[in-house]
Amino acid sequence: MRITGDHTGLAIEGRLDVRSAADARALLHAAVDGGEGDLVLDLGRLEFWDATGLGVIMGTHRRAGRAGRRLVLRDVPGQLQRLLVATRLHRILAVEGAVQDPVGTTLPALG
C-alpha cells in the first residue's frame, strides 16, 4: 500500500487490508488533523480492500467530522461502490460520481 498527497488530497494505491491498516490509519488521521476543508481520498488505484480497510475509511470519516472536515471519496472502484451500497454506507460517506442504490436508481452525486 502506498499513500501519496497532502492535507487536502490523498491517493491510495495497492491494498488496504489488515496488513496495511495501521500505517494507512496513521497517515490518513495525520492528514485530517493537519488541514482544513474537504479531504479528498482518491481510490482509483486501490487494488484490494477488506473489512479492516473499510474500517479505516470509516474511522477517517468520523475523525474528519469531529475536526469540522469532510472526507470525500473520489474514483471509487465499482466493486467498492457496490459494497458501499450493500452496506448503505453510500448514504453516510461523501462519494464523487454516481452511486447506484439496490434498485438501480442513481443517487445524487457530489461536485
From TrEMBL:
Domain STAS: 1-106
InterPro entries, sorted: Anti-sigma_ant, MlaB-like_STAS, STAS_dom, STAS_dom_sf
GO MF annotation list: anti-sigma factor antagonist activity
Family that this chain belongs to: Belongs to the anti-sigma-factor antagonist family.
Name used for this protein in its record: Anti-sigma factor antagonist
